């Protein structure tokens, strides 16, 4: 294990501890608003993000309940503690589909944000307010997609796995291997 891997692990662990503290105390995130807005919006100036910032609390509990359900979506937090932060997917594994007309942009698509009703998505502009923030880089947003089940779950029209990285198993089996809910597995398979 390298020093960088230890640092990345420590930063994620501190983040989880902070979120746990904020959710359990009910007011922790509000009393430490600059830290919360730094994590999710990349900005210490909490007053600029007050509206969406207050929606992070109920969203956090929805995510916890989703992950704790037996058929929940724990794969959303499947980023290993020791992995490097990322602001883009691994281009050695994925590519933009030929029929995607928006280049590297997500264009009109907001599926990954809308499925989880992400409060960081600015609905008036359709843009992520937390683009390249700590949460974006250290968790799933910045590195999406990492696998075919990611693409399938969100029905992503932009990305596809490169042929050499596609696992020779059924989409439903791949979905089951990352913990997708049975009803979502049925939609995929």
**Rg over CA atoms:** 17 Å
Strand order of the largest sheet: 1-4
Shape: globular
Which percent range fits the helix content?
40-55%
Mean pLDDT: 84
Number of strands: 4
Q: How would you classify the helix and strand content by structural class?
A: mainly alpha
Number of domains: 1
Separation of termini? 38 Å
Strand content: 5-15%
Runs with pLDDT <50, length 5+?
A: 177-181
SS element count, helices: 11
Order of helices and strands: HHHHHEHEEHHHEHH
Oligomer: single chain
Helices and strands in order:
Blueprint: H1 3-25, H2 28-31, H3 33-41, H4 50-54, H5 56-68, E1 94-96, H6 111-115, E2 121-122, E3 127-128, H7 134-138, H8 140-143, H9 148-154, E4 159-161, H10 171-177, H11 182-188
Antiparallel strand pairs: 1-4, 2-3
Helix pairs in contact: 9-10, 10-11
Describe the structure.
With 189 residues, this protein is mainly alpha-helical. It has one domain. The chain has helices at residues 3-25, 28-31, 33-41, 50-54, 56-68, 111-115, 134-138, 140-143, 148-154, 171-177, 182-188; strands spanning 94-96, 121-122, 127-128, 159-161. The strands form two sheets. It has a two-stranded antiparallel ribbon with strand order 1-4. A two-stranded antiparallel sheet has the order 2-3. A hairpin with a 4-residue loop joins strand 2 (121-122) and strand 3 (127-128). The model is unreliable at 177-181 (pLDDT under 50).
